[in-house]
């Protein structure tokens, strides 16, 4: 068992007589944005267009994630608190729909570029969640269980690292080959949704966002992503046949 859990919610830099404290979660978000943007540009059929829209996509993802978190937990948009990735995914879809100007092919091309990038960015962001000690899992006796310092015993599933590994594998699989327009994005939705549904079973209810009737925000979002992804993948593959 890891007594400290490997968590480091902040890092300190000493410059002369000054001490600068940086949140590791925020630092990982920055890294995720840089990596995600690079992946999207590299995957794009029209890199210039993706590069133009990338700042808006990133901004929408962060704002959407924050808005959903505040809607569930209350508080101020600019205050302390976390993010809810489901809100970010929804915001990205809206921005891409605007960027496509009603053209289905253009939307598919943009979605195919940003979907793998977003998955890879989420993988990096989940490492930040682990370092920050949030989104913890249920208690476990498994040898890789983690004792989170702010919670104390018992050891818990490092769900954040499970999610990071799953997203990294999914992102790598999505990047391996090119497919018919829209199919990569559809597969990304199915993979993210199914993976999130599975991992939510290991997540502690106290670290989850409740919705209604015992359903969690993440579960509702995952069900929608999976359903939309499956339908889209079937229709796109039939159209390409």
β-sheet strand percentage: 5-15%
State the total count of DSSP E strands. Answer: 4
How many structurally independent domains?
Answer: 1
Extract low-pLDDT stretches.
1-6
Major beta-sheet overview:
2 strands, antiparallel
Radius of gyration: 19 Å
Descriptive key words:
single chain; 241 residues; mainly alpha; two-stranded antiparallel ribbon; 7 helices; 7% strand; globular
What does this structure look like?
There is one protein chain. With 241 residues, this protein is mainly alpha-helical. The chain has one domain (10-240). It has helices at residues 24-43, 47-73, 85-100, 104-132, 159-176, 183-200, 217-240; strands spanning 10-15, 18-23, 210-212, 215-216. It has a two-stranded antiparallel ribbon with strand order 1-2. The chain has a two-stranded antiparallel sheet with strand order 3-4. Strand 1 (10-15) and strand 2 (18-23) form a beta hairpin. Helix 1 (24-43) packs antiparallel against helix 4 (104-132) and helix 6 (183-200) packs antiparallel against helix 7 (217-240). The model is unreliable at 1-6 (pLDDT under 50).
